[in-house]
Amino acid sequence: MTRFRASAPASRRFPSRCSTSSSCGAGRSTASARASTSWPSSPISTSSCWSTRRPELLMRILLLLCNTAAFLALWCAGCATDAPEPYLPEDVGQTVEGPGLVSRGAHLYMKYCQPCHGAEGKGDGPAADVLDTPPRDLTAGQFKFRSTPMGSSPTAGDLYRVIALGVPGTEMPAWGDRLGEQEMWSIAAYVQTLEPGFGDEATRPKPEAVIDIPAPPELGADAVASGQKLFGQFGCTSCHGEDGRGGGPSAADLEDYTGRPIAPPDFSTGVYKSGPRPRDLYRTIATGVSGVPMPGYAGALKPDQIWQVVAYIRSLRQERGVFDYLLATDPGRL
């Protein structure tokens, strides 16, 4: 539809084809159309051409809005569901060998990881200041998600798993669907060279120390009830709260190893930073989380009891609507 200037002569106010076209339903002569037509009050013409096209335009806008809403709903739902699993090593040694593995990993690290983690792995990359979650300092030896005891360095398999799955709820993406297995092994091998503890015999991960994750027992309603009791009995509620939403009495005073205030996760979201699978939760409960006040319970709980706590935590998940994600004030806890 053409927009007209106020200085346009009367003969140019409306194109003659709109006045005489049968599709407009006018059926009038050009002269009679000009005589009976007044100057529109807005730049959009209110002629019958607009009347016939308006429903189609409104329908297109409605379909666009519906498609956008559907996309957002599916995307947000995917944030709290189990994603397709890439290849993930579970039982690997402390090293990964191969010709040129570290040098290739250094090249890939500078391409994909350096913008956040920095050229030297200190978490000071050019994008670090704009991220809600500070990037991990890979030289500090404080790797959160490990299959090794507290105070030990992670295995190459632990690093590979974090690279492949990312860290849900943070800006650390999952590279499992973007990089090949050899590329992720290369990055893992290079990251090990950044961590001084890996070269220290006292903290170097030993294959025999890697936690064994047994197959889960039946995790029904009884397991959930038992897990809830253990959750309170072993002090989990002091940080995570009675409802598992991270509002426990100690939550406001929590800090990481750098002194930065941190918040416990909200289990009702169904988003777990250690990974989407039940075994990822089991591993974190058993080994603890380095650099934060989350201890490991492998020596305090039996394997079946850890699985019961896993069952209870996963039972706390609540469905979230699209507006819960769009209006969240703390997206890192969603």
Automatic annotation (TrEMBL):
Using the UniProt annotation, give all residue ranges assigned to the region (Disordered).
1-49, 243-269
Q: Read off the Gene3D superfamilies from this record.
A: Cytochrome c-like domain (1.10.760.10)
The molecule here is called: C-type cytochrome
Q: Which UniProt keywords apply?
A: Electron transport, Heme, Iron, Metal-binding, Transport
**Listed PANTHER family:** ALCOHOL DEHYDROGENASE CYTOCHROME C SUBUNIT, BLL4482 PROTEIN-RELATED
UniProt-listed InterPro entries: Cyt_c-like_dom (IPR009056), Cyt_c-like_dom_sf (IPR036909), Cyt_C_IC (IPR008168), Cytochrome_c-type_DH (IPR051459)
Q: Which domain of life is it from?
A: Bacteria
Name the Gene Ontology molecular function terms of this record: electron transfer activity; heme binding; iron ion binding
Which SUPFAM superfamilies is this protein grouped with?
Answer: Cytochrome c
- Domain called Cytochrome c: residue spans: 100-195, 222-317
